[in-house]
Design brief:
The protein has a single domain, classed as NE0471 N-terminal domain-like (2-Layer Sandwich). The chain is built from two helices and seven strands, in the order E-E-E-H-E-E-E-H-E. A four-stranded antiparallel beta sheet has the order 1-2-3-7. By secondary structure, it is α+β, with helices and mostly antiparallel strands. Bound molecules: zinc ion (ZN). The site of zinc ion has 7 residues, from loops.
Amino acid sequence: MEIGRAGESDIQIRWSDGKIVIYPARFLRLACPCAVCVDETTGRRILVVASVPPDVRPLAIEPVGRYAISIRWSDGHSTGIYTWEWLYQLAGELPKQETQPPEK
Ligand SMILES: [Zn+2]
C-alpha cells in the first residue's frame, strides 16, 4: 500500500489491488479506534464529535510495523492505531464521492 496526502488535509491510500481511496481527514479522526475514543468494553464511541475541530488534519503519519499506521492529529490526538485491514473495511463506509476508480 502507498499512503499519501490528498489536498490540504485528506489522506489517500493506494491499495495493492489498485483501488485508490481518499479518506477525509475529519472523518478519519472521528473514526479513531483507540481506547480514548472508543470504550474498550462496550465498543461504544465516546469521542465527543464537537471536540474535534472542523479543520483537523494529520500532522504526521507513521508506520506501525507492517500492519498499521499511527496518525498524529492537529488537535493533539495521537494514540490511534489504524490497521490496514481496518482502513480497507472503512473504505466501504465512506460517502460515495470520496472513492475513486483505479487509475488506468
Ligand atoms: Zn483516538
